[in-house]
Amino acid sequence: MATTNGRVQSNDLVTLPVINISDPTPEIGRKMIDAAATHGFLYIDTRGTDFAPENVERQFELSKQFFSSPEEEKAACQIGSDNRGWTGMHSETLDPANQKRGDFKEAFNIGEFIDNRPQQPIPKSLQGHEDELLDFETRCRKTCHRILRLLALGLEIPDPDWFSSRHKTPSGCTLRLLHYPALPLDTDYQPEVDIRAGAHSDYGSITLLFQRPSQPGLEILTSSTTRSENSNSTSASEDRRTQQNKQQKWSPVPVIPSNYTPEASDDKTPLPPILLNIGDLLSYWTNNLLKSTVHRVIFPNDQHRNKASGAGLLGEDRYSIAYFCHPTDSTLLEAVPSRLVPDMTHPSSTTEARDGGFRVGYGGGAGGAKVLTAKEHLIRRLEATYGFEHK
Ligand SMILES: O=C(O)CCC(=O)C(=O)O
Ligand SMILES: [Fe+2]
Q1: Segment 301-319, tens digit of pLDDT
Q2: Which ligand lies nearest to the CA atom of residue 275 in the structure?
Q3: Which residues of 317-352 are buried (b: 16+ CB within 10 A; e: fewer)?
Q4: pTM for the full model?
Q5: I want to staple 279 with a disulfide (CB 3.0 to 4.6 A). Which of 202, 316, 365, 371 is the partner?
Q6: 176 lines ligand 1 (CB under 6 A)
C-alpha cells in the first residue's frame, strides 16, 4: 500500500456483483439495492440491456475520431455554462484540494437531443453522425429506465415506475466521451499529485460507464474497519471507537471482473459489462441509503514505471464513455415512498431524534424547509465544482 493524494492505496480489487437486468423481478431489484447501498457501484451484464457489442464499438470509434481531430476543431465546440461541449487537457480539476494541476484528460459532453436534434454545435469530425450519437443516447436512456424500475422494485415502492416516470426531458442527462492520453516520454507527471481524473462523485441519479478491455485505471474509495484491542466488546462506546478507526482506501475496479464470463468469439474483443454507479442526487433523494461513492481514474503505475509503449509514449491511451442520467428538470426531490429508506438507514431512529424534525423515511430533505427540484440540485452541485453559475 502507498499513500496517494492523502489516502491509502490498496492493490485489492474490489468485488462487485454482475447483474443481469433482462428479467425485472423484485429479487433482482433487491440485489441491486444491496450493492447500491454498500459500494454504490455494480456491474450490469450487457446481455440483458439494449446494447449489442457493435453499438458500443461504434461509439468508441466515433470517440477516437473526435479526439484525434485537430485541436482548433475541438476548440470550436468549447464547453460553456450549459455544461455541453469539449473540455481540453488540464482544464477540469475534479479534486482541487489534492491536485496541483488539472486532470490529464479531455472530454466531450453531449446534452440530450430534443426532437431528435442535438442542442449544441456538433464538431466537424462528428458531423453526419448525429443519428449514431442519438441512437447510443437512446439505448443508454432505455437501459437507465430498466435500472430505475428495478431500483423501485428493490425499494418496494408501490409504483415500479416511480423513478422512471420522473426521468423525462428536459433534463441534465449527458453523454460524455472521455480520452486520457498516453504521456510523452519526458513527462513530469508525478503519481503522488497528478491524476487522470481527480476524486469526485457524480451528480445525477445513476451513471453508466463503458470501458475498454485492457484499459484499467478506475478506483473507488472504500472503507474498512480496523478494530481496536478490546475487540470482544460490543458496547455502544466501543462501537463508536471502532467507527473512528475506519480507514479509507482506494480500491481498483477491474474492467472485466473475475466473476464475469463475457461471450468472447475468436474475432472479437469481449465486451466488458457496463459499470453502474449511484450519483449524488439519488443518494440525496434516498436519504443516503444508496451511496454516491467517490471515485477517480489513475494512470496505471506499471505503465508509468515501464516507460515507453510502441508509439514512443509512456503508457497507453485510455478511452471511456459515461452516461449521466438525471431526472426531469422540474422533478421535485420529495419523499421516496419506500419503507426501506428508514428501515435500512436509521433502524432505531424516531422522527424526534432526527435533526430539525427531518421526517424519517422520506428522502431528499422532504419535510425540511424547501424541496429542491432536480435542476436546482444540479445547479448547486455544478456551482460547488466550477464556481460559476450554469444555465
Ligand atoms: O473514465 C472513467 O472511467 C470514469 C470517468 C468518470 O468518473 C466521470 O467522468 O465522472
Ligand atoms: Fe465519475
Answers
A1: 776 666 556 667 888 999 9
A2: 1
A3: bbbbbbbbbbbbbebebbbbbbebbbebbbeeeeee
A4: 0.88
A5: 202
A6: yes
Residue closest to 38 by CA, chosen among 15, 19, 60: 15
Here the cell at position 304 is 508509468
**Which residue has better confidence, 229 or 103?**
103
**Is 292 near ligand 1, meaning CB less than 6 Å away?**
no
Which residue's CA is the nearest one to ligand 1's atom 3? 218
Residue matched to cell numbers 460559476: 388
**Counting every residue, how long is the chain?**
391
Lowest mean pLDDT among 4-8, 99-103, 125-129: 4-8
Give the tens place of pLDDT for each residue, 215-267. 999 999 998 765 554 444 444 444 444 555 678 899 999 999 988 887 665 55
> Would you state the pLDDT for residue 302?
72
pLDDT, mean over the chain: 84
Q: Please report, rounded to a whole number, the percentage of residues in the chain having pLDDT higher than 90.
A: 58
Ligand 1: residue whose CA is nearest its atom 10? 202
**CB–CB of 78/149 below 8 Å?**
no
Q: What is the pLDDT of residues 17-32, one digit of tens each?
A: 999 999 999 999 999 9
